[in-house]
Amino acid sequence: MTADDPNNDETAAGRIGAPRDAAFYGRRKGKKLRTAQAAHLAQDLPRLSIALDDIGTAPHDANALAALFPHPVREVRLEIGFGGGEHLVAEAERHPDIGYIGAEAFLNGIAKATTRVSEKGLANVRLYGDDVIPLLDRLPAASLARIDLLYPDPWPKRRHWKRRFVQADNIDRIARLLVPGGHFRFATDIEHYAAWTLRQLLADPRFDWTAERADDWRLAWAGWPGTRYEAKALREGRRPGYYEFQRH
């Protein structure tokens, strides 16, 4: 291995531990919450929320995450930046035997997801409402079966590209957390961000792009519920792409 090899533990650890110049998310709060959302946030978020201390001090115990859920789960998946929680909740409904962790720094999104999870009585969802990087660094290695990054902020201006989530340090984090054979899924309607992501993941020997034909990335995944952001992109003539990579 060379010093720049992504499989070099010291190189990866150095990138993971390095502080970011700027957060990859934007604002933390939008318009005033609806009364029902504020009530769910106050009453239900405490039992749904994950604190870093909840994960314990067993970073090498891949089974530790199962203890976050009140019922046994066969695997755990993570969604980074879940927006209003449309996809997160739909997936949790479809797969009650899978544990889902949703991370979102935007308070209004957390409120929407908390409301949806509570009203549907889902027991297989936990929420993390802060910068996801400390969470990623605390989660046990090889503990996640899938990580979803759906319509992240594209930070279109060149001077802001360093704020995009798909960077070498975060690819290292994703590779560390996925089980062998696990999947990283990425969706965007921004062509340049898709090319940016493909360029980095295709060059990384730890990942394989699963697409075999164009429809594998042009068509949404099975069970895809759609999101409001996606609907807006389609109205404005932007065609989303759905990219899936498998961890070696």
From TrEMBL:
Respond yes or no to whether keyword Methyltransferase is given for this record.
yes
- Lineage, top-rank taxon, reads Bacteria
Q: Which Pfam families match?
A: Methyltransf_4 (PF02390)
Q: Where does substrate bind?
A: 157, 189, 227-230
For molecular function, the Gene Ontology terms on record are: tRNA (guanine(46)-N7)-methyltransferase activity
Tell me the keywords, alphabetical order.
Methyltransferase, S-adenosyl-L-methionine, Transferase, tRNA processing
GO terms under cellular component? tRNA methyltransferase complex
Residues binding S-adenosyl-L-methionine, per UniProt: 79, 104, 131, 153
Tell me which EC number(s) this protein carries: 2.1.1.33
Q: Which reaction does it catalyse?
A: guanosine(46) in tRNA + S-adenosyl-L-methionine = N(7)-methylguanosine(46) in tRNA + S-adenosyl-L-homocysteine
Key word Disulfide bond present in the record?
A: no
Pathway involvement of the protein, from the record:
tRNA modification; N(7)-methylguanine-tRNA biosynthesis
Q: What does this protein do?
A: Catalyzes the formation of N(7)-methylguanine at position 46 (m7G46) in tRNA.
Q: Which NCBIfam families match?
A: tRNA (guanosine(46)-N7)-methyltransferase TrmB
The record's comment on protein family reads: Belongs to the class I-like SAM-binding methyltransferase superfamily. TrmB family.
Please identify the protein, giving its name as recorded.
tRNA (guanine-N(7)-)-methyltransferase
Q: Which organism is it from?
A: Ancylobacter aquaticus
- What taxonomic ancestry is recorded? Bacteria, Pseudomonadati, Pseudomonadota, Alphaproteobacteria, Hyphomicrobiales
